Each structure stands twice: as structure tokens, then as C-alpha cells.
Amino acid sequence: MDSKREPRFIRVHQEEKQVTSYVIEDQVTGVNYLVIETQQGAGITPLLDSHGKVVITKHMIGDIDRHEPL
């Protein structure tokens, strides 16, 4: 990847308690993923809506400035 490009994945939301969970977004495909981290390991899965379909954010790369890059 060209180092001048925007980061592909951005952190959209994060919560920290005994387990850290956050949503990341693939800025190329728009697919959102739920990430869970514990002291024992981590897991990642596509984020699904109430109909069981993958959550896809529709925007152009660079349009979002409110999220932090990973």
C-alpha cells in the first residue's frame, strides 16, 4: 500500500471494562467488524444488523475525520 493513503481500518467505537470491545471499519470495503480483546486472546467478526446482514458504511475514503486510525 502507498504510505500516503489513508489507513484502511479505522476505530469507530470502543468500550473498556473487563473486556475491551470496539468496532473497526474497513475503509476500502466499508465492512464493520466487532473486535473483542481479553487478557487471554482476541476475536473478530463482521458486525451484523438486526436482519443478520453485514453492516457496511457507505462513504468515500477520507470523508470521515471523527474516527481514529488503527
- Total strands: the figure is 5
Instruction: Provide the domain count.
Output: 1
Helix content: under 10%
Strand residue content: 35-45%
Radius of gyration: 13 Å
Which parts are unreliable, with pLDDT below 50 for 5 consecutive residues or more?
none
| Largest sheet strand order | 4-3-2-1-5
Number of helices: 0
Shape: globular
Major sheet attributes: 5 strands, antiparallel
Ends distance: 15 Å
Q: How does the SSE layout of this entry go?
A:
Elements: E1 9-16, E2 20-26, E3 32-37, E4 42-46, E5 68-69
Antiparallel strand pairs: 1-2, 1-5, 2-3, 3-4
Provide tags for this entry:
0% helix; mainly beta; 70 residues; 40% strand; 5-stranded antiparallel β-sheet
Any overview of this molecule?
The chain is mainly beta and 70 residues long. It has one domain (9-59). The protein contains no helices and five strands. It has strands at residues 9-16, 20-26, 32-37, 42-46, 68-69. Strands 4-3-2-1-5 form a five-stranded antiparallel sheet, with no helix packed on it. The mean pLDDT is 82.
State the gist of this model.
The chain is mainly β.
